[in-house]
Design goal:
Helix content: 25-40%
Radius of gyration: 18 Å
Largest sheet: 4 strands, antiparallel
Structural class: alpha+beta
């Protein structure tokens, strides 16, 4: 039996809800495509759920390669032209 639910929003984006059941576990109900892989995951507390969803969302949204390229800027070719 569901007791309550809490909205999970990361960086201003609504990703889904955490649903508390009588067992005391939280189940994540994903509504955003970026976190569909976590749909129906069970976690022991709200902080753990938010952390896991946030990490997944940010990893999917900005993969490490894209972040590194953005940080370094464009590469230069032989004649100093952008690649």
């Amino acid at each position: 039996m569901m007791l309550e639910s809490t909205i999970i929003e990361i960086d201003g984006v609504f990703l889904g809800t955490a649903v508390l059941f009588a067992s005391g576990l939280l189940r994540f109900h994903a509504v955003h495509d970026s976190v569909r892989a976590l749909h129906n995951q069970l976690l022991p507390d709200l902080d753990s759920l938010r952390h896991k969803v946030g990490l997944h969302f940010r990893k999917v949204r900005h993969p490490p390669v894209a972040r590194e390229l953005k940080r370094r800027g464009p590469r230069k070719g032989r004649a100093g032209q952008d690649c």
